[in-house]
Amino acid sequence: MKLSNNSSIESGGFFKRKIAIISIMAISALSVCATPATINERNVIDSSISQQPSVSEMYKRYMDAGVMKGKSGRSKASKIEKRSKKPKCKSKSRGEGITYDSSEAFGKTGAVAADEGRCSEIGVNVLKDGGSAVDAAISSAICIGLLNPHSSGIGGGGFMVIRKPNGESEMIDFREMAPAAATPDMYVKNNTLSAYGGLASGVPGELRGYELAHKRHGRLSFSRLLEPTIKLARGGYAIGRDLASALLEKENDLRNDEGARQVYFKPDGSILKLGDIGKRVNFANTLQKIADQGVDSFYTGDLAKAMVKTIQENGGILTLEDFAKYKPELRSTGVISYNGRKIITATPPASGSVITTIFNILEGYDLKNPKDRELSVHRIIEAFKFGFSLRTDLGDPAFVNVTEIITKSYDKNFAAKLRSRITDEETHSYAYYDLKNDFKSDHGTTHVSALDKDGMAVSLTSTINLYFGSKLIDPVTGVIFNNEMDDFGTPGLINAFGLSPSPSNFIAPGKRPLSSTSATIVEKDGKVEFVLGASGGSRIITATSQVFLNMVEFGKSLKDAVDMPRIHDQMLPEVTEFELSYPKYILDSLASRKHNLTEMEINATAVQGIRVLSDGTINAVSDARKSGAPSAY
After folding, report:
1. SS3 per residue for 101-143
2. How far apart are alpha carbons 21 and 78 in whole angstroms?
3. Residue 575 CB contacts under 8 Å (≥ 6 apart), including other chains
4. Cα separation, 246 vs 626, whole angstroms
5. Interstrand relation of 597-599 and 576-578 (parallel, antiparallel or unpaired)
6. For residue 441, what pLDDT is reported?
7. Three-class SS string for 300-327?
8. Is 381 annotated to bind ligand?
9. Residue 407 has what pLDDT?
10. What pLDDT was estimated at residue 494?
């Protein structure tokens, strides 16, 4: 593509997901053009068993949305030009490049926003039964492990930021841990082993994290939180859009795994598709055992023995002792002020410190002036770069001294020094931002935001890393194992810029890899105003930041803030990514400031947000970039 000033926009990355072109077009049309009513229709819970439209109804919606029109043989450039135009569907642009149409819900009592509407509904049912926001978030996340298992599940881990009704906050770190036998150089000879098979898995932390959160803040029984997902797994559930897409993309990998063949393939050998009914009876049995016997049964009993056996038979080094020794960590949150608001976010090994750095830098600017919008976007990108430069020093606090870097990320004076180095006329190469090391980009994840009647807020991010984690599913327990070991850096792997990986994130026994998770809760006048978080690997940080800024600085509703097109810059690689509907006049301005522009992979991030309006109404939004829907009452 060419901008008006003849600067080039690099093509590439638009179809990084190697899926059949018709499927990509179908998925894109729904995510960009589907109305909230359409999404809600596909995500109705009836006695915890989904009642989705038939495959023929789904197909008709695809056709109505303009899917499969045109020739698949167009050049990449023509595809990009076509996608840059307003979609031929009912969803009209609402200005500023908005073409997404996310689902939203309103209530007066509580809400849950997740990337699967059936799971949001399960969470709100928990709230209606007297459960806390922690209860609701756990129940929704367990559900996502069934309905969107490519993103998260009990074979993974994550972080939960909790804001209690009295205003106090805490973070529960249930990130996966490296096995006791792990070594820094274990992937030097074959780095694909960090992504596939038994050697890719760290010790799962999700259930221990939920157990701790429930003990501290739960109101309903833990078994009650598992019941809806047990019913779905045993009785059957319709395959949703995101899972259907992931199954298609990873069909070859899954076909090679016994556990995957049991649950994701039909008797005739074909993989499950959109609208098909799936069952995971072994997974239902696992959840039932946990409901009956407690979380210990997962970490020390027969379930652990079965999982360790499968992992070791597939080249892994996890042991029963690794499972038995796993403990979640209760950590303090990161807290800063931003123009009268209180920002509460995740701390290492999560990346909330990058968000606090970004916000502290931007607080010193007047971003609201519409005449300076192009300049404001440039400054936001520069703040992203300085924030990511600090990320290379982050890691597991049990192994790395992160005190200095965290202190800097909260320091307004330090932010002012960084701000003074931002030049309004142009951007700079990575060396200008004091980047010391390369850093590993993580992937995947799911996010749940929850708020209850008492003002307890939960921002929960969970992951198994890449799609279907290690591509290894235990045929006994039905657990999908993470490949979180891929989030560590490996010594000696020099990147194209001559930078080596950060030693702060090298492998060590019992260590937790650095995560881009940036679960965030915002207060105004002592009350919860926003509950935010995202999926999408390293783009989590910039997506969460932009949704916040869109509301606070640019006066957008939560829905518009989520739907607005996004940019992303993590400094390396030296490109500024943009979504294809991003306003051209801003892209022209960025190009003139020497930003190297390239289109962002479609649906690369998805934000789940809750906003409490001035009259007390609760507004929840699930990003249309994934097929989720929120629920509120």
Report:
1. CCEEEEECCCEEEECCHHHHHHHHHHHHCCCCHHHHHHHHHHH
2. 14
3. 10, 569, 596, 597, 598
4. 12
5. parallel
6. 67
7. HCHHHHHHHHHHHHCCCCCCHHHHHHCC
8. no
9. 98
10. 65
pLDDT (0 to 100) of residue 286: 99
Peptide bond preceding 475: is omega within 30 degrees of 0, i.e. cis? no
Query: Contact 508/289 with Cβ under 8 angstroms?
Result: no
Whether 467 contacts 246, CB under 8 Å: yes
Phi, psi of 514 (to 5 degrees): -60, 140
Please, which residues bridge with residue 113 across strands? 449
Q: What is the pLDDT of residue 19?
A: 32
Phi, psi of 534 (to 5 degrees): -150, 165
3-state SS, residue 506: strand
Annotate 530-562 with b (16+ C-beta within 10 A) or e (fewer): bbbbbbbbbbbbbbbbbbbbbbbbbebebbbbb
How crowded is residue 401: how many other Cβ atoms within 10 Å of its Cβ?
11
> Using CA atoms in the order 505, 511, 517, 520, what is the torsion angle rounded to 10 degrees?
-120
Residue 395: φ, ψ to 5°: 180, -165
445 catalytically annotated: yes
12 is in an annotated binding site: no
Q: Give 447-500 as a DSSP string.
A: EEEEE-TTS-EEEEEEE-SSTTTTS-B-TTT-PBPP-GGGGSB-TT---TTSPP
516 annotated as a binding-site residue: yes
314 appears as a binding residue in the annotation: no
Kindly report, residue by residue over 605-633, the tens digit of the pLDDT: 999 999 999 999 999 999 999 989 999 99
Find residue 250's DSSP bridge partners: none
Terminal C-alpha separation, the chain: 46
Q: What is the pLDDT of residue 8?
A: 37
Residue 515 is assigned to a ligand binding site: yes
464 assigned to a ligand binding site: yes
Which residue is catalytic, options 99, 392, 445, 542? 445
**Cα radius of gyration (the chain):** 23
Distance CA 82, CA 478 (A): 42
The b-or-e profile of 114-124 (16+ CB within 10 A means b, else e) is bbbbbbbbbbb
- The ranges assigned to domains in the chain are 117-152+173-329+465-491
pLDDT of residue 257: 98
Angle, CA of 520, 526 and 529, to the nearest 5°:
45
Which residues touch 277 (CB under 8 Å, ≥6 apart)?
A: 236, 237, 238, 239
Q: Which burial class, exposed, middle or buried, applies to 3 when counting CB atoms under 10 A from its CB (0-12, 13-18, 19+)?
A: middle
Q: Which residues of the chain have pLDDT under 70?
A: 1-94, 440-444, 494-498
